[in-house]
Amino acid sequence: MEIILITGMSGSGKSVALHALEDAGFYCVDNLPPELLQPLLALEHQHHAQKLAIAMDVRSATSLPGVPAQLQALRTAGVTVRTLFLDANTDVLVRRYSETRRRHPLSQGATQERALVQAIELERELLADLREQAHVIDTTFIRAAQLQRHVKDLVSAPLSQLTLVFQSFAFKRGIPVDADFVFDVRMLPNPHYEPELRALTGRDQAVADYLAGHPQVQDMLQQVGDFVARWLEPLARDHRSYVTVAIGCTGGQHRSVYLVEQLSKRFGGAWVTLVRHRELDSH
Questions:
Q1: What stretches of 127-176 show up as alpha helix (H) in DSSP?
Q2: Which among 275, 256, 262 has a CA at the least distance from the CA of 175?
Q3: What is the pLDDT of residues 113-139, one digit of tens each?
């Protein structure tokens, strides 16, 4: 049996992720109390279920501390378990709650924004242990369709091998909260200032040729690649399933996109790699 546990912040898109898994052939259960995990697995085992996706959240706060031990026991028993944690920055979560007029499960009837922020920060504390052991997906700047693609890509990658996620982003929109390593390439030559390249992206050959012609760009590419290569084996030995490497420039259109594409080519032959372009994919 393969089990995907979806958890994370309220308003971060867990329902969207669960629907993506349902489309991928998983039997999905939303808001399962942790105390019912073992009975559910026993029942599904009787029914010969192969793929099971479970969503847990802060509504089960009193029982959440015991979940990591339950997951470890399942892995020890030979069950394939992946944990995905959906996150977003506080400002975006507040806006989403304001737009939907939903009440946060920890707000206890409060309606003031300050009380909502306090509820969100309390939720972060309660979920910290689960977040530490999960692959984090930052939904701050992505649409529902993007999130569905990300989830399907992640669960389709083989669990037996570490998966490298290379992501480009714009510093002006904030650093991705799901990044394990962040590299700043804003000091490199910027194609934005070349009129014929401004409307293109780092995936276009003209931009790639321009950046490849600058030695400092190639130095950066080599050094970032060497750093990632140096630590992949230790990360794999630490039983990491996913590692996210984020490359940021000013607009997330040219330099960071180019480096992500080149890094994916370098590592794609030996490792499972996924590519995300946060700013390009959001259009």
A1: 128-132, 144-156
A2: 256
A3: 558 888 899 999 989 988 988 999 999
